[in-house]
């Protein structure tokens, strides 16, 4: 059985290069694929492999100093979730990009967690709160929490710019969320440093919310970073919020445009996929280099 493993931890890593070597050799031996980012601030992995291999992986990773507190998120995966293994050193495990401006966030300013069931209660009780998506536009396009503010950003580096546009919420109750929680650790710390007084971050992200509550009040599906591109979240009151780029039919179906030089991620229905041969436009349809 192929499983997907998501995890992160912010913990000081003294020698990222050394940990890269170690992680590579463990993953190669266990035939694990996917992406692992390592920085002096921590480690972030999205990997796939056989269930037993991932059990072994978790046991071995836990034994590395400083990595004992990782919270693992395991789910079923497709056969070819990731084409290869990439283990690399980065400046940050999620890039806010403030380091170079000497304005980096302090993670000890991160917001308190709100647990999935508590968020569900906020919705059920019609409490006053603003829910903020800390992910990118192309992720929220296929699914988001009900009433969420979704920033029009293409990378997490643009999140600080978005925060400037919501200064009117500084003294209001705010909840942030992302896929698995890693971006909220920084997003919430950043917001608090900008003077937001009542911020909480969804513990474990959409992923854990789906597992623990059935996903009620999540609209559409969750964008994910393996070959499936998206996966259902809500088994209570599911809905579809995204529209086919061509005919505007409501559909949760994401592909990469057939023209590799375009390669835009597009929502497309099956009929239009056939008609445009996987293209986002007639131009791309006619200029696809990999047409069958
Ligand atoms: Zn269509
Ligand atoms: Zn295109």
From TrEMBL:
<feature type="domain" description="Rhodanese">
    <location>
        <begin position="125"/>
        <end position="218"/>
    </location>
</feature>
<dbReference type="InterPro" id="IPR020936">
    <property type="entry name" value="TrhO"/>
</dbReference>
<dbReference type="InterPro" id="IPR022111">
    <property type="entry name" value="Rhodanese_C"/>
</dbReference>
<dbReference type="InterPro" id="IPR001763">
    <property type="entry name" value="Rhodanese-like_dom"/>
</dbReference>
<dbReference type="Pfam" id="PF12368">
    <property type="entry name" value="Rhodanese_C"/>
</dbReference>
<dbReference type="InterPro" id="IPR040503">
    <property type="entry name" value="TRHO_N"/>
</dbReference>
<comment type="function">
    <text>Catalyzes oxygen-dependent 5-hydroxyuridine (ho5U) modification at position 34 in tRNAs.</text>
</comment>
<comment type="similarity">
    <text>Belongs to the TrhO family.</text>
</comment>
<protein>
    <recommendedName>
        <fullName>tRNA uridine(34) hydroxylase</fullName>
        <ecNumber>1.14.-.-</ecNumber>
    </recommendedName>
</protein>
<keyword id="KW-0560">Oxidoreductase</keyword>
<keyword id="KW-0819">tRNA processing</keyword>
<dbReference type="GO" id="GO:0006400">
    <property type="term" value="P:tRNA modification"/>
</dbReference>
<dbReference type="Pfam" id="PF00581">
    <property type="entry name" value="Rhodanese"/>
</dbReference>
<dbReference type="InterPro" id="IPR036873">
    <property type="entry name" value="Rhodanese-like_dom_sf"/>
</dbReference>
<dbReference type="GO" id="GO:0016705">
    <property type="term" value="F:oxidoreductase activity, acting on paired donors, with incorporation or reduction of molecular oxygen"/>
</dbReference>
<dbReference type="Pfam" id="PF17773">
    <property type="entry name" value="UPF0176_N"/>
</dbReference>
